[in-house]
Write a structure and sequence with these properties.
single chain; alpha/beta; Rossmann fold; twelve-stranded mixed sheet; two-stranded antiparallel ribbon; 13 helices; 16 strands; binds 2-acetamido-2-deoxy-beta-D-glucopyranose
Length: 450
């Protein structure tokens, strides 16, 4: 009897604590001037997956503005990283934060200025999301798309006032492999008559990995375009490696020798933004530019912070920016936790072309992790008619980058660069990223009622 009461009590606790509005956060003085909701969505058999999310409501018009699901890269990187370093409403105050005393300030370029954003820790094992069984802890590229769809359906059932907002799936970096598949699952689910029907309009992808051949190989072309390797090295490498600089045949000695020269020229470059120094952030005075893990790790592991965020006590032993057993790196094999089973999402992009899906791809043109060169390359293979040709776009009358839009039977793909931008795009160029995102969403506002 006692045992059953206990179970009922536990269920009561979990359900009553599964969603909350956060008024204050340690490190930020006063009430938060935006609406932040956090919580868990139970998924899978017996809710064996507990998926943590942060919803930041639009600071403009939450009922009219779009709803953006944001997936952080890796896979395996916590969404709190994007929240605090890239597109969220808060960032660290680097001047006044010292040791354990961390202070937060408002990010004037938060995406919540223009849209509602759900930051979600997926797959489980990432950030504050967790699994209750071994089976539930396993994920992969294709499963992640299904899980994201399930998450949205469950979340919208619990938050029905967002059901009619135009829905966009977004993500960065590795999520370029996953985001188009999430969108496709949703369109297909809607067509099958799944309830609830989701009001999906498109995808917004930042510095994406789309194809594990094209995008990794593009680093070589990029190194040439940006003058990191000479014409001479470029030409002899091209001639000996047959267009493949990554999955090359180790028996091809000429190619291997040339690649060694390429490597000498590029291995000391900061791939996240080739103009920035490589640094071991822990040794340096933290600034907004250097990659500082320490603040976020200190803050997110603070018990008061977790309590304020409505995180369940005692489940996550140590919060980490990235779960390294899930994170992908070139040529990595599947692990027990994660299967890297999608090689390319180009086929999904092709399918989305018949769904009236609007796609925006933003690339920092100094990102060498997944250089814009590769993105341009695979978009061109789709052979789409150009709706609006390559042209500069502007922020405060300065060229902020370049853009081109392709369109076909109600679908579109817009490609835009941000000049000087790096891999964590909104960290280096927050204003440009916000202007591009907002302008693009607004240009599709007419679709909202259809
Ligand atoms: C923490 O930092 C803030 C801002 O710099 C300062 O006002 C406050 O006194 C510090 N608190 C402690 C306990 O050091
Ligand atoms: C990484 O993810 C796996 C799979 O969910 C999980 O079992 C493990 O605890 C996670 N590691 C950390 C450090 O959170
Ligand atoms: C991946 O697995 C293959 C086949 O077992 C093996 O040859 C290769 O070395 C593995 N790669 C890595 C990076 O561990």
């Amino acid at each position: 009897m006692m045992f059953f009461l206990f179970i009922i009590f536990l269920q009561f606790i979990t359900s009553s604590h599964s969603k909350a509005i956060i008024k204050n956060l340690p490190g930020f003085d006063g009430d938060l001037p935006f609406t932040l909701q956090t919580g868990y969505i139970g998924m899978g058999e017996d809710d064996s997956m507990q998926v943590f999310y942060y919803l930041v409501e639009s600071q403009r018009s939450p009922s009219d503005d779009p709803l953006l699901l944001y997936l952080t890269g890796g896979p395996g990187t916590s969404t709190l990283y994007s929240f605090l370093y890239q597109i969220g409403p808060l960032s660290f105050n680097y001047e006044s934060s010292k040791g354990n005393n961390i202070t937060l300030e408002l990010n004037p370029y938060s995406w919540s200025k223009a849209t509602n954003v759900i930051f979600v820790d997926l797959p489980v094992g990432v950030g504050f999301s967790y699994a209750k069984t071994w089976e539930a802890s396993r994920s992969g590229d294709s499963i992640l798309a299904l899980q994201s769809y399930e998450f949205l359906r469950k979340w919208l059932v619990k938050n029905p006032r967002f059901m009619n907002n135009p829905l966009y799936i977004s993500g960065i970096s590795y999520m370029g492999i996953v985001v188009p598949n999430v969108a496709l699952e949703i369109y297909n689910g809607n067509e099958r008559g799944n309830q609830p029907q989701l009001n999906i309009k498109g995808c917004l992808i930042v510095n994406p990995l789309t194809d594990k051949y094209v995008n990794f190989n593009a680093r070589f072309e990029f190194a040439h375009r940006l003058a990191l390797i000479s014409d001479d090295i470029y030409e002899s490498t091209k001639a000996t490696c047959g267009g493949n600089y990554v999955y090359n045949d180790p028996g091809n000695m000429l190619c291997a020798d040339n690649l060694k020269r390429v490597d000498e020229c590029t291995s000391k470059i900061n791939f996240a933004n080739i103009l920035e120094p490589v640094s071991d952030a822990r040794d340096m005075e933290p600034t907004w530019k250097t990659y500082t893990d320490t603040f976020i790790e200190t803050w997110a592991n603070n018990k008061d912070v977790q309590k304020a965020l409505n995180v369940r006590e005692g489940i996550i032993k140590k919060w980490e920016i990235t779960n390294m057993s899930i994170k992908y790196k070139l040529k990595k094999n599947d692990t027990v936790y994660y299967s890297y089973d999608v090689w390319s999402s180009i086929p999904s992009h092709k399918k989305l072309l018949s769904k009236k899906c609007q796609v925006l791809i933003i690339c920092g043109d100094h990102d060498m992790v997944f250089p814009y060169v590769g993105t341009i390359k695979w978009i061109r293979t789709l052979n789409l008619p150009i709706e609006s040709p390559w042209e500069p776009w502007f922020v405060r009358s300065q060229v902020a980058g370049y853009q081109v839009t392709y369109a076909q039977s109600g679908s579109s793909i817009k490609f835009a660069t941000i000049k000087g931008g790096g891999h964590p795009l909104a960290k280096y160029n927050p204003e440009e990223a916000l202007v591009m995102m907002d302008g693009w969403l607004a240009s599709h506002a007419y679709l909202s009622d259809s």
